[in-house]
Design goal:
Layout lengths: L2 E6 L4 E8 L1 E6 L2 E6 L3 E4 L5 E5 L4 E7 L1 H10 L3 E2 L3 E3 L3 H15 L5 H17 L2 E2 L10 H13 L6 H8 L3 H12 L3 H19 L4 H7 L5 H12 L3 H5 L1
Antiparallel strand pairs: 1-6, 2-5, 2-7, 3-4, 3-6, 5-9, 8-10
Helix pairs in contact: 1-3, 2-3, 4-5, 7-9
Length: 240
């Protein structure tokens, strides 16, 4: 059945395969259109609007985010992003088998789980290469500032504080830091706080608000926005 669906975000990773017609996903300002023989993947918690053209035939299912995250450690060097996938016949076959297994009341849970894993691996293999980690700063002054961020990320650090630690003017420090680290000092500080927050949330010892304060955010709302920007989902969803 054709039609447009309202803005939504799913807990799982959406995989859609089109046999005929076309389906489109609007994600922010981007529009992903998939046609016969193609598939689309939409990461968990990614807000999108779906439109199915009349007469289209498609399969859409959701893979548990935890399963995909675990397998991402195995399928090294790839990351999941919203994208259109060509030559999707293998994905479509796995998706059909998985749906048929899920619909069978006496179907094997082990079989369904194996099919879900196979589908997740296929999707991850078509993901984007993970960016290579930065080799780190070569200037010892920039290294001192970066080390200070790692050691004191929960403090009320400012760019001026980091420039003083480096023994440089603010302007020269910011230019040199971005040149060697690939991001501004403030962006590096925020990314470090988010990374440490993710570690705390995985341990389950703190609430989302407590985690925000523990890593140096004074505003839980700003923390939630930064976490979603870096991790691709809300901190509450990540904790769950």
């Amino acid at each position: 059945m054709g039609g447009a669906y309202p803005l939504a975000a799913h807990d799982g990773v959406e995989v859609a395969c089109v046999s005929s017609g076309a389906v489109s996903y609007r994600i922010g300002s981007r529009v992903l259109t998939i046609e016969a023989g193609q598939a689309a993947v939409v990461p968990a918690e990614q807000e999108h609007v779906t439109r199915i053209e009349p007469g289209s035939e498609a399969i859409s299912l959701w893979l548990e985010r935890g399963l995909v995250d675990e397998l991402a450690e195995v399928v090294a060097g790839r990351r999941l992003v919203a994208a259109v996938l060509d030559r999707a016949a293998p994905l479509q076959s796995l998706a059909r088998l998985l749906l048929e297994e899920a619909r069978e009341r006496e179907g094997s849970f082990v079989t369904a789980e194996a099919l879900a894993e196979a589908l997740a691996v296929q999707v991850l293999r078509r993901g984007e290469p993970r960016p290579s980690p930065s080799p780190g700063p070569t200037d010892p002054r920039i290294r001192r500032a970066a080390d200070a961020v790692e050691a004191r990320f929960a403090d009320a650090l400012t760019v001026d504080d980091l420039a003083r630690i480096a023994g440089m003017s603010r302007f020269h420090f910011c230019r040199q830091f971005r040149g060697q680290m690939g991001v501004s000092p403030y962006q590096h500080l925020v990314a470090t706080r988010v990374r440490r927050a993710a570690e705390l949330l995985r341990r389950g010892r703190y609430s989302v608000t407590e985690t925000a304060f523990e890593v140096g955010f004074s505003d839980p709302g700003r923390f939630a926005r930064a976490f979603r920007r870096h991790m691709g989902c809300a901190p509450s969803a990540y904790a769950a």
